[in-house]
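User: I'm writing a tutorial on reading structure tokens. Could you give me a worked example: one chain, its sequence, then its tokens, then a sentence or two explaining what the tokens reveal?
Assistant: Sure. Here is the example chain.
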Amino acid sequence: MRLGDWTFKLFSDGRFRLDGGATFGIVPKPMWEKQLAADSLNRVPVALRCLLAEGHDCRVLVDTGIGDRWDARQREIYGMERRAGQLLTELDAAGIARDSITDVILTHLHFDHAGGACLDLAGGMTPAFPNARWWLQRQHWEWAHHPSERDRASFRPEDFEALAATGRLELVEGHVEILPGLRVAPASGHTPGMQIPEFHTDEGTLVFLADLIPSVSHVHLPWVAGWDLNPLLTLSEKRQLLSRAVEDDYLLVFQHDPVHEACRVTFQDGRFRAREICQLTTATAS
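And here are its predicted structure tokens:
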């Protein structure tokens, strides 16, 4: 789809499965399973979408998926449903060469967002997009190197450590416009220093939600994932973003919803509600 000076496409790195209780936090299962059915292990499907934005003589990729470096036991635990090299294969099929990506925004460094940032080649770990600048919040880079016991398993340093030696790692602080109209906004309820990309154009605004609002079900304020380190901060950050989205009619893009790709929102009967739930032009089927 096109919005202002930007053209957007969604690409998939497949999907995996996470515990339904963790996905929906304190929401009782009889409520959330009406939205998303769980398997026999109580796991729900989770999409792995990455956003490609083209404009201003640049190609910007948001997040890099879960990557390939998983053994059989790990793939079984997470119920991974993906082809080897899926994201890169989809980009290639669309005529997007790895070396043509000018910028990569990493919303954060959890393994399902940064797992494909580096490739394990003969010479060792090397960035998957060799000519790109890599954008990340400094706070999160530092947190990923010293996480808490609660979230340590969400980080795999080999996914991202090689980025530091490239000289192309851009560590920003707070709200920053990194390209004309492309701003990143910190959101730390999920993990300290996560950032949300916002594309502001004269035809409207598109926001890639990452783990702030992982699915359309999470538009409802109390539905906060159990893995968020600071759920009350998530609640506040959701309220602020959704209020702006209502006022300015943002298009919100879901990274993890297994069915729905995007929506706009309204505030009705005392709560935020999704409206105009829609599919963007996805590059290829998962």
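What the tokens reveal: The chain has one domain: 2-278. The longest strand covers residues 6-19.
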